[in-house]
Amino acid sequence: VIRGDGFFGWDMSLATSWVLPRLENQSVQVRWNVSNVANTNRFDIQAANLEWDTSTFGNYTSTLTSPRVMEFSLTYNF
Rounded to an integer, what distance in angstroms lies between the CA atom of residue 70 and that of residue 74? Predict the structure, then answer.
């Protein structure tokens, strides 16, 4: 059995809210979500080419992680 590097994932979210003046029951929220903050690549050892007779020995063809994704949102609550 061949073991890979393992899996590392780090997601983060940052948000703040403001109550609108003169309209206490309404607010605005700003949010920033980030997936894979460190933007690390983890290769899939199961997808590696491990045949000795080819020139692509040890090349990975897929990853376990996705690239960094950022999402910004503005929410109006009433």
Answer: 14
Distance CA 50, CA 1 (A): 12
pLDDT digits (tens, 9 = 90+) for 11-47: 999 999 999 998 889 999 999 999 989 888 887 777 6
Indicate yes or no: pTM above 0.70: no
* 52 φ/ψ sector (left φ>0, alpha ψ -120 to 50, else beta): alpha
Token pair 């080819």 is found at 54
**Nearest Cα to Cα of residue 44 among 25, 32, 59, 33:** 59
Backbone angles phi and psi of 25, in degrees to 5 = -95, 10
* 57 and 49 Cβ atoms separated by less than 8 Å: yes
Helices and strands of the chain, counted as H and E runs: 0, 3
